[in-house]
Amino acid sequence: MLNKSISNYFNQLNLDNHHFKDYVIPFVVFCLFTLASILFFNHFQDQAIWGNMKVAGGNAFKFCEHNNMGTSLVQTSNTWSNLGFLLTGLIMLFMGIKDTKLKEENKTNLLLKYPVFSIIIGISILYLFVGSFFYHASVTYFFQMIDQTGMYAILLGFMAYNVFRIWPSFKDKSGKTKSSHHWIIFGLLIFDILFLTVLWKIIDINILFTSLALSFIAFSVVYTKKTKAEKFTKVLLYAAVIVYLTSMSIWIMDRSNIFCDPQSLFQGHALWHLLNAVALMLIYFSYRSEHNIISK
Q1: Which domain holds residue 102?
Q2: Which of 2, 144, 179, 210 has its CA 20 to 30 Å from the CA of residue 43?
Q3: Does the global pTM surpass 0.85?
Q4: H helices present in the chain, as ranges
């Protein structure tokens, strides 16, 4: 009975042709990176290896956790909690790679028909992971830039997929129907470059990112209702919304020193990282469980 239920969920998530062996590589990568990081930070424990790099600004020193300046690991919990993004990014990336090999063009789910979006979102999350992991480990300007542009990259990736859900195809001058994903991905790359080079420095991330994220959530909920999505899809999306709003509340309390013990391993910002990784996975799975969403 349990195996049947698990199999049913896998089918609903369009994972029926995915197997454990398909995820051996991401599991090994996750374990090797974790082990290598433990050995690295332990070896350089009391050395100021980031000393020659420019110190970060903005929110860098507004988190609750105590900053162990002059060491290889400045913010312990805020650093290790980013491993949730590593695992999430690897899973999405390899799901997209597996879907590419399957070439299931008969499926109605857009993520399966166009796995490039899974790959882009997975890479964006891994980019954020690199930035946020080393940003909190070093509190340096360079990794802060990767951290902040990584947050935008993920949001833009999901927003691009949402545009594709609404506008999956168009007719060229000859009247032939073509997929719009090439144009949408091109636009996504332009926006990613703009945020990487200019926008992240001139716009307050606390205002812009939060506004875009909440707008994205509102759109996803409204769109899901209008398309009369299946119950399973709605449950996953609503769960993602609850998890994200919870994480935002914790982020605010951590930054305001309401939910704060600087010396504790249990940090609000670290919990924010973990909950956001869960929210991203839930949103992704909600999209992956959709059916009959292709406009005729």
Answers
A1: 20-288
A2: 144
A3: yes
A4: 2-12, 24-43, 76-80, 83-102, 110-113, 116-138, 141-166, 181-194, 200-202, 205-226, 231-255, 268-288
